[in-house]
Amino acid sequence: MRTKYFLAIFLFLLAFSSNAQCAMCRAALESEGDSSKAEAINNGIVYLMAFPYIMVAIVFYVVYKMKFKKKPQPDTE
Predict the structure, then answer these.
(1) pLDDT at site 61
(2) Which positions of the chain have pLDDT values less than 50?
C-alpha cells in the first residue's frame, strides 16, 4: 500500500514540466531572439538542480539500510 503512494507521488511530480529560469536570465536571453540558447540555459539549470535531490535520496537510503540492517542470530548450540 505504501509503495502505491510513493509511486503516485513520483509520477505526479514527474509529470510537471520544469521551467527553472529566473526572471532576469529569461529577460536577458529572450531579448536576443535566439530561443535555442535560452532552452540550453534552462536545461542546464534543471540539470544542476537535480543533483542535490539525488544526493539527499542516496543518503536517506543508506541511513535506512543501516537502521534496519538485520542482526545475525547467535547460535544456541
Answers:
(1) 93
(2) none
Q: Are 49 and 20 in contact (CB under 8 A)?
A: yes
Which among 60, 56, 50, 25 has a CA at the least distance from the CA of 39?
A: 25
Model-level pTM greater than 0.70?
no
Of the chain, the end-to-end C-alpha distance in Å amounts to: 40
Asked if 29 and 37 touch (Cβ cutoff 8 Å), the reply is yes
What amino acid occupies position 56?
V
Looking at residue 58, its pLDDT comes to 95
Helical ranges in the chain per DSSP H: 2-14, 23-32, 35-67
pLDDT for the residue 34: 67
Query: Using CA of residue 65, residue 70, residue 72, residue 74, what is the dihedral sign?
Result: positive
Question: What whole-number distance in Å separates Cα of residue 37 and Cα of residue 31?
Answer: 11
